[in-house]
Description:
Blueprint: H1 5-21, H2 24-33, H3 41-61, H4 64-92
Helix pairs in contact: 1-4, 2-4, 3-4
Amino acid sequence: MNLEPHQIEVIGYCAAFLTTIAFLPQAIQSWRTRDLSGVSLGMYSLFAAGVGLWLIYGLIIEKWPLILANALTFALALSILLLKLRHTSKHRK
């Protein structure tokens, strides 16, 4: 498969958009309902750390699809993780 560099970038941006937008429903539902009982603290902790590393990697290699997607995904995952941590600590008291 012979693709031009701009075609490869378009694929990267499409992948970045789709994987990032996939987190919006969970984030919106979590913010609205504050019901995080189905959210795994371990999974979101590992996921947020992984996305943070992908963001650092994107910054190092200066690839905007990686940077933009992972910055937004990191923010969404971190917001859900923080809500989960707050929810977990309230129920322990």
